[in-house]
Hints:
With 222 residues, chain A is mainly α. Chain A has 7 helices and no strands. Chain A has a single domain (30-219), classed as Four Helix Bundle (Hemerythrin (Met), subunit A) (Up-down Bundle). The termini of chain A are far apart.
Amino acid sequence: MSNNQDGAFFYLGTSPHVEHEDKEAAKFGMWLFLYTELLLFGALFLAYAVYRSIYPKEFEIAASHLDRTVGTVNTIVLLFSSLTVVIAIVAIQKGNKMLSAFMLILTMACAFTFLIIKTFEWKAKFDSGIFLVPQSNIGEASAVLSALPQGQQVFYGLYFVMTGLHALHVIIGIGIFIVILVFLFRDIIHKKDVVFLENSGLYWHIVDLIWIFLFPLYYLVV
Amino acid sequence: MSGHDHEEEQNHHEPTYGTPILVFIGLVALTCITVSSTVIKLSATASVLLAMTVATIKATLVVYFFMHLKYEKKYLGLFFAIPVIILVIIFLWTFTDYPFRVYN
Lengths: 222, 104
């Protein structure tokens, strides 16, 4: 798409090769990947919808045991981290590298906060005897969970799988932003070339997008 | 919300801090609306409808402004319709089946 218009390019020698870097294709590829993410989570949302239609009462009872305040705080944290990524992109486009780096660190801090809150939330459920995988020191399936009606068991199964898969995406997101931060300091990402940062931002927004739907379905619709 | 409506091509709009901050405030406001709406005891169907409508509006804001679809070339937006349509078809198809099954 764009040949390098910087004068710096020509210092690279007399090589006849022109380095083609198609930023638009890079972005398009990222969008394609995001579609597969949508379909991956879409299948889980479909499972949720089907089981909710089969066990409406049990889903309502089980969902009322989730902490709504915790869910709301996590929603705000994730929305804010989406904002900081956008600001990081705008900042680097305006040539403000330090602000961009600061915003990326803030994004990672938000991601950590989200995960810590999530950990406490899961821990509370584990302590009350609700878990999916047998704990190694006990070695048995959760007696509390097995005693619940089948609809509630399905609810907790979906809850752990969907929020767990989402949390995994948040962890991967932190890893991506560490790489991006290194790229930023090495000037691989700079004012004229922000496509790496933009693509990681797109990924982060999809993670946010999925939480936007997870949150009401698990914490609000009771 | 912003004055970029005349811009068609990507990269020609001047990136600003203002628009994303406004969108963020909107997203938080919408979150507050759904959370507070649970205080009013709506029927199950009504509360699902309300929550999903607000979530869809929030998702649209994220895709349009944060994910920059507003400023991208048209084909990316059209392309985005494909997974959405696939999901809608899958959901509709499934629900032509499951509600009519007899359990036990």
